[in-house]
Structures
1.
Amino acid sequence: MKLVVASGKGGTGKSTVAANVAYSLSRARDVVLVDCDVEEPNLHLFFPAPATEVPVTTPVPEIDADRCTFCGECGRFCRYGALAVLKDRVLVFPELCHSCGGCTLVCPQGAIRETPRTIGSVRCSRPLPTLTLISGVLNEGEVQAPAVIRKAKLLAEGHPLVLYDASPGIACPVIETLEGCDACILVTESTPFGLHDLRLAAEVAEKLGISAGVVINRSDGRDDPIVAFCRDHDLPVLMTIPFDRQIAAVQNPGGLIGRELPGWEERFVELFRKASALQEVRS
Amino acid sequence: MIICITARGAGMDAPVEQRFGRAPYFVFVDTETGDSNAVANSLVDAAGGVGPRAAQVLVDHRATVLITGQVGGNAARALQAGGIRVYAYRGDGRVADALEQYTAGKLAPLL
Amino acid sequence: MIRLAVISGKGGTGKTMVTAALADINRLPQVLADCDVDASNLELLFPHRRISTEAFMGLEVARIDPARCQDCGICADRCRFGAIVRRDDAWQVDALHCEGCGVCEYVCPMGAIRMEPHICGEICTSATERGYLAHARLAPGSGNSGLLVHEVKKRAVGLLDGCEVMLVDGPPGIGCPLISTISGMNAVLIVTEPSVSALHDLGRLVTVCRRFNLRIFVAINRFDLEEGICGEIEAYCEEESLPVVGRIPFDLQVVEAVRNNRPVTRTQSPASKAIHALWDNLSEELEMP
């Protein structure tokens, strides 16, 4: 089972839900939790433990100055502006490079080869005997989040039960995370901003053919617009987490309500059961 | 010496464009002959990485001075490496006005 | 003409809430532009009527002409993004994964692949009770870009006739969309909050803004939540000679106002009062009539 926790809007409590589900499931079985929010990874804050780090690299061009004739073919081919050919040298902007390899193909002198460049890392830890945490971390100023996500997902490959925490929004990192997964939980909050961004996230899941259900977080009981939206779009509301001082007091300093408040572990296990059932309905 | 001025249209009477990479036109002026040549910028609608690519266009046209409003970080690096000096023109005038101010030494270096 | 962009570096600091409040307070004729295209929420706070909608073309995407394709699969082999897939017994481009690099077009021995413009969103203009609004919506899988921001701003500028203020809700971060947003502005208002990450982002954002010919102002949202870090922000601004024009307290009525699709300035609340004071400071600094 591969389950993604996603949200259209940032700050809805997506990571908190992912961490709670992972913790609650790990009480009875082996779980792998993958932090795919590589621009702001923070699941490790819930599960501090020593980690082993694997660098993530992408190939970038390196120019052989002896062979280069400054013809400018590579610079004209590159659509990302990663190469600028000047009179007497070629400037490489590795942070603009998408690693397509086109420059090496078009160079008539064979003067370009690719060298690996570190853009981030994947950190693996085992905070609990039954919980493995794999966190993707994109270095600041880098743009190739999907490459880090791919590597993090690869390390979790083959495990029977994997939970993924996606980045907020609907751009390519989210698509990279959702790809190949069985079902998706969309975490939202009951404000117009939350609903607006849920709508976008639901569209992405639908486009990729992944069944989705909704968790309403910080609910004050006035969830009618969200509930109506979910009903109209065949999105089951899997769980509602109330806006509650006791919950906030656990969560604000980084605690897990599944661990610290009675009854919540069972609720998160139940959330997982319902989310798994989404997939079965479809298949 | 060849000077490039970013412009919203072709020619010396076109208004100066503030942006560098996505300027609609580059007007190249040869200060020795007084000839000017406007080149439409194919990067106007490009999605990204326009700065370094626009710098390459300037190098291809052998420009050594650029007059524009603003340049981003990557463009700045490419222009500097290409030995192109950049001067800021932030008025609402025409290409000819910017050139005149540059010649009179009234423009401040941007890089 | 005042051209003011509200920006934040870090996401989630309350930038849109502040923009909407300022738009609501300002009585000079104005145009609004929502350049935070990934979360274009400004329209939610002002009832509006759509005036125009246009397709937005992003990076080109490859297309395989099935009539010319000889099924060799070289394109799929060379594509680094897994964007060329086998579907219905033919090679096809999966537009969600295509990054528009052009390698497949280059390697195809049959000339069967073309790079074509691809719709990746729409750009809209709307009329609100507080002036015209230019905004955009992205298709799933597309990210904000400097080009899209530029297009949104261009629509806003086209509606400026007779206006004295252009107010822009900027994107988070310090990348291309941000640069595109602040280019051509006379002033930026940075909305920050007392958190370690926001302070860190503030420094990077100021460095970027300094490259431009504009004035920089700072507002601290939820300033009373972490007094220690708030003090650090104030000290940083002092050192960098950045005027702190507003301090907005934590206020549950902010959430309540958003829930009711209204700018917070329509409520009698501490946050509303603080944003009014912020606007007065800004008006004075920018010498608004």
2.
Amino acid sequence: MVFTTAVNFVRSRGPDEFWRKRRIFKLAAHFVGRKRNCYSIAIRYVHRALRYATKGRILKKIDMRNLWQTRIVAGCMEHDIDYNVFRESLYRSDILLDRKTLANLAAWEPYTFKALTDIAKRRAIDDGLASINNQHEVDRIITKGSLVKT
Amino acid sequence: MSTLKRVQQWATFARIWHIYDATWQNPFKSAELLKKFLMGVHKPIYHPMNDCGDHVVIINSADIALPGDEWKKRAYFHHTGYPGGASWTLAWDLHRKDATMILKKAIYNSMDGNLQRRYTMQRLHIFPDANVPKHLLENVSNQIRQLRPVPKRLDKYNLEEVKTFPKLIDYPKDYIIR
């Protein structure tokens, strides 16, 4: 294509108009009303939707993390141990599980989670982290710390 | 699905009924505790869109204890919607009118205002005394531990126990206790 003036050069941009608009309409397909049919309105809402999507990618991670946290706290409450003591004790016992794994264990593998809380309680007692109720229940568990002490 | 799995499913999602004795308890601290049970936050299967909240029966709400001078200072606002329809009721006055109201409002206000809040409140049953209808009481399977133990008042001890209680000193005969 030969452009005789700069004005014509500016006007002819990108791919064919139909395909360019079609790309936007595909993104606007699930909108309601004229937002999905009229290009000049659709493009505004697609831009906004894409901005929300960018924010949402971060928010989703934060929300999931909060949900896992809530679930682990619930699991800790069932077994009568404080969340912070639980996490600190696991860390000291070299059990490096993240929130996602712990939350899955609390919901789907309750016996495994109970074993983890028992280990955490033993470690908390050995290191003097916090007062643990019903200490006799974790007498059968031995951690590295309790071996060193006795 | 095997029978075991099916029963496990029922047991996981069954609504549990808890009972809580509000005698001499701070209603605002209690609200923070009880809302967890009402919303189901105390279960590892919790999800905001998962309807897993439990029922809570509160007894003896007439005997709650507000901290400090809250009975005299805390005001509850109500507006009828008409001009000049605003009214402020002090906590002691509200408690005299309805002994369940302070606890109910404390729990309602402790939760976030969303569409689920009204339905969550429907799972809360407050009674000013220990007279709970039998059809509610027979569901109860768990007691929530009180936030603080209820101390026994001096006038509830009999004279014998007070006399024999160990003490450090005897006041002199002519000592005036102010």
